[in-house]
């Protein structure tokens, strides 16, 4: 591990993320308004403080993005299958997660795909993970960025949501470190969300 120095931009970004995500999860009635606003704030913060990587060509990142999104969905589908088959406690948590926070109105889906997904990837991978990689090895930056990504989900009060964010964060973090393309990761995340929220939700 490299010599660590305090990066105040990381610290300030993390404080902002926790503050606004805490507010976001406090009231289901304003969740989608606050979630959208939070991602726009974090997206703006990331753009102002870190240049994102984009090494893959359009065809390459689109193809890899769709394929990896399908792979991640297949992994989640398999996990959900075993949860449902063995009647594990997470079954009720998944139902609660969908009923409380899944998109329901047309504008929810629009902001999810246009602002929330790109905002999450820009902040957690393009900003947080990239800056962490300046102070530590790639694998540690992926792991720590994923833990931080999962940490803001604690305010949902749903353990399976935190666990899912950690797993997905490691997956997308490794993908970002491998291909050095934020657009690729955004396409992967978009593909995953379209499948899990629109085409094949785990309801």
TrEMBL record:
<keyword id="KW-0812">Transmembrane</keyword>
<protein>
    <submittedName>
        <fullName>Type II CAAX endopeptidase family protein</fullName>
    </submittedName>
</protein>
<feature type="transmembrane region" description="Helical">
    <location>
        <begin position="106"/>
        <end position="124"/>
    </location>
</feature>
<feature type="transmembrane region" description="Helical">
    <location>
        <begin position="31"/>
        <end position="49"/>
    </location>
</feature>
<feature type="transmembrane region" description="Helical">
    <location>
        <begin position="184"/>
        <end position="202"/>
    </location>
</feature>
<keyword id="KW-0472">Membrane</keyword>
<feature type="transmembrane region" description="Helical">
    <location>
        <begin position="7"/>
        <end position="25"/>
    </location>
</feature>
<keyword id="KW-1133">Transmembrane helix</keyword>
<dbReference type="InterPro" id="IPR003675">
    <property type="entry name" value="Rce1/LyrA-like_dom"/>
</dbReference>
<feature type="transmembrane region" description="Helical">
    <location>
        <begin position="158"/>
        <end position="177"/>
    </location>
</feature>
<feature type="domain" description="CAAX prenyl protease 2/Lysostaphin resistance protein A-like">
    <location>
        <begin position="104"/>
        <end position="194"/>
    </location>
</feature>
<feature type="transmembrane region" description="Helical">
    <location>
        <begin position="61"/>
        <end position="86"/>
    </location>
</feature>
<dbReference type="Pfam" id="PF02517">
    <property type="entry name" value="Rce1-like"/>
</dbReference>
């Amino acid at each position: 591990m490299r010599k660590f120095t305090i990066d105040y931009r990381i610290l300030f970004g993390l404080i902002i993320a926790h503050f606004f995500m805490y507010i976001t999860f406090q009231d289901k009635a304003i969740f989608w308004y606050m979630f959208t606003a939070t991602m726009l704030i974090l997206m703006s913060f990331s753009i102002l403080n870190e240049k994102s990587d984009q090494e893959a060509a359009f065809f390459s990142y689109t193809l890899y993005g769709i394929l990896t999104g399908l792979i991640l969905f297949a992994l989640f589908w398999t996990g959900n299958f075993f949860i449902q088959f063995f009647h594990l406690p997470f079954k009720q948590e998944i139902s609660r997660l969908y009923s409380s926070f899944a998109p329901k109105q047309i504008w929810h889906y629009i902001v999810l795909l246009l602002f929330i997904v790109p905002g999450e990837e820009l902040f957690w991978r393009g900003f947080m993970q990239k800056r962490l990689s300046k102070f530590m090895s790639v694998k540690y930056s992926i792991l720590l960025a994923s833990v931080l990504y999962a940490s803001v989900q604690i305010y949902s009060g749903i353990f399976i949501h935190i666990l899912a964010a950690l797993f997905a964060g490691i997956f997308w973090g490794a993908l970002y470190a491998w291909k050095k393309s934020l657009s690729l990761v955004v396409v992967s995340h978009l593909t995953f969300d379209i499948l899990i929220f629109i085409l094949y939700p785990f309801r």
